[in-house]
From TrEMBL:
Reaction catalyzed: ATP + protein L-histidine = ADP + protein N-phospho-L-histidine
Gene Ontology terms, MF aspect: phosphorelay sensor kinase activity
Keyword Phosphoprotein in record: yes
Protein name: histidine kinase
Keyword Lipid metabolism on entry: no
Annotated InterPro entries: HATPase_C_sf, HATPase_dom, His_kinase_dom, HisK_dim/P_dom, HisK_dim/P_sf, Sig_transdc_His_kin-like_C, TPR-like_helical_dom_sf
Coiled-coil ranges (or none): 290-319
Enzyme class of the recorded protein, top EC level: transferase
Keywords: Coiled coil, Kinase, Membrane, Phosphoprotein, Transferase, Transmembrane, Transmembrane helix
Organism: Croceimicrobium hydrocarbonivorans
Amino acid sequence: MSSQAQLSMEENVDSLNNLYAKGLYEELIYMGQSNIADWPLGDTLNRHYGRTLLNLGKAFGQLEVYSVAMQYHRRALSVYKQISDSSGVVNAYTYLASIYYSTEDSAGAFANLNWARSYYPDSVSKTEEMRHTYILGLLYKKFGTPERGLELIDSLIPHLRTNSYLYAQVNVASIDLMDSMEFLVRYPDILLHIERSKFSVVYRIKALEEVLMRANEIGRQDIIVRYLPKLESLMKDGGRNVSITQKARFYKLQADAKAYQKDYLSAFNLMKDYTKHLAQMDSIRGASDLQKLETQVRLKDAELNAQELSIALQDSKRQTYILIVIIVLAGIIIFLIYRINRNTRERNRAIAEVAATRGRMLSILSHDIRTPLGQLIGTLDAFEEGDLNVTELKEMLGPIKAAAESTNKLLDNTVAWINVNRADFKLNPINFDVHAFYEDVLSHFKAVARAKEVSFELDIQLKNLYADRFLVQTTLFNLISNALKFSEKGGRLVLKNYQRKDRKVLEVSDNGRGISEANLEIIRWEMRISTQGTHRESGGGLGLTIVRDACHKLEADFEIDSIEGQGTNCRIVF
């Protein structure tokens, strides 16, 4: 064989080793069988051919196709014996022992391991010695004295490198023989070591399943619930390289976790999947009659577990139905009590609102309207009695007219406020054009704006608004009236509407006198306040009260902010 061909074979064997280390067993089988098919017929008696056969046997063994795995290991054994490669013979016998171990043939397992020992060369590496001890420990643990097996396995731990594959195997193999306290102390470190060592996905599944199966045995289903999402993720990553046994264990663990969480229906369905995989394990392995009998016992046990879960599921459903009936009856009683209380609260609130409305209306009529009317009557009485002459009366006509106009506006506001607070008031929301609405509202203020030389600006971003038009108009009338009242000559008043996240906003802003912090605090505390305008216009302090009441009816928020000397912004937020 040429040196180039020799190098190519070595590279192919190294590739198979890498695939095995990564747990990519199906890919290894495809590549290995292709290599065997292309191998020169007259050149099969060499160690590279034997290593290829061993890798194929190992891959089929991991996938639990044991009959095929055994064929490849025996072919490899024949090759190594013919070329007198003692190390190869040892490996072949050792892997045959592992197959017999997996098929629970104790005689075949011990015999092949002893033959492997007999072929050891004069000088054997420490690693090979420890591997032999590890396999012997597994055989004792399964077929002989478990304590002796655990003793052999534990004896290896101080001598192994912590990052070695054998160290991980030894730790995982000792899990099911630990007592509960030792297990609870050691299992987190074992899992952490497996995770950090970057072993193949398939081996990480094996390690995690061993931990969770042991947790299940000692009644710590909470550990299963905690780690199942991780195991599920690994099962997906493993794909077709996950063995039937690993899948069966996964379904069993899922079923136990669901039963622990009292989800008996899911647990019952998962147990059915588990029994199907047990049957598959039996057919794939080509088991002996004794093994088939053991499998049937396990299947029967799984069926009994499924029946228990089914009974628990029926009990759970019955309890659920009773609980639902109790909840429904309790809900009906609570709803009736709530309706009675709500009707009582609504009645009391309506009575309180009527009383409050009456009190506020009497306050306005008795003070804010009666005062200017009293001043007017007093002036006329003085003129009638001769205390005022015509010239003096003409001089007082200006203030009298202003007082009359203020009183008229106060009456309009009072009527509007009473309308808003009527007990029988009902919202009438419609979809209306905002631009036309703004134009209509501003038309009522053109004369006042012209007299004070205040300009209007519109900034309309939303074409339509769905709300009670009367209430929106009432709020804007009062906000615009206040803005004009406190605007200086040549001022500017802006009406806007826009979207703020999922809410619609109407805004009235001016660059007038603004509001002091003290007065702004009073307004925010919803107290009435009356202040003279820039042309000494008076008011009843009712405007913002009407705005707030209207906003309450509209289920909108009223916002106000101002800087003294710079202007005020008022917003209705729907």
